[in-house]
Fold this sequence. Notes:
By secondary structure, the protein is mainly alpha-helical. It is built from 14 helices and no strands. It has helices at residues 8-16, 20-31, 34-48, 55-64, 73-78, 82-90, 92-99, 105-130, 139-160, 171-186, 192-202, 207-236, 244-268, 275-296. The two termini are 34 Å apart.
Amino acid sequence: MSDKIISWGRLQRLLSVGQFPLSISLTLSSQMPDWLAVIILGIIEGVTEFLPISSTGHLLIPQNLGWLPKQTDLFDVVIQSGAVVAVLAVFMQRVKQLATSLSDRSTQDFLAKLAGAFLITAVGGLAIKKLDIELPDAIAPVAWATLIGGIIILVLERAYRGKTGVAEITWGVVVAVAVAQLIAAVFPGTSRSGASILMAMAFGIARPAATEFSFLLGIPTLMAAGGFKILSAIKDGEAAHEDWGMVALGTVVSALSAFVVVKWLIRFVQSHTFNGFAWYRILLGGALIMYVSSQAQ
């Protein structure tokens, strides 16, 4: 029998000396076929991209813990583009309405605000890249961002309680939402969609309108991030070493799973708060912090 297979006797020894989590996870990830790991990561990305729980954080956690084989940064960024397809499919009627009413002043105003939020995000993202700001990908900062984000959601939901909000997106909201996206980009575990939706709500925007604006803004934001990462990889010579078949598989799986989640979330926000997601973040972040602390001892 291969020495990679964990026997019952070895499992008992690992449990007895407290080495179970790391040893088991490394063995499982080394035995897992690449295609299966990619499918799992694609599902994780699609399910979490538009939920206020951070897709980047959920991609990093199983890879850093050794539960799934480590993928490249290019893979993690590009498969997020698959979620854009889901938004386009779910919001097809809204996109058609915007495309067929370009002469309407309200449509022009809405598209200008989407473009403004995207441009602020893009310029800020390029500035972050230019300044060589290293984005944390270790478990500890992701865990703290997850925990703190959950607490912030509870605070904002409490402040928003009893309010209905307005549907019109203001230019102040545009700037605030763009800043929220940049914060999420710098601190994995924050959640781009969660930060942008809650920031808009904090400025008095109704939950459905905030959700729609965040999701539609995600289309150019995620596509630009994926495109920029691909161009950078080509320029740096990294693209030649990438398994593009696996990237394509992860992107397709991400799109399919995101489609289901986006359709559900659009209905969910009509009559629910994000408190459930907040408590999930707090429990997950707390558990990860305790895990990191135990490993450091």
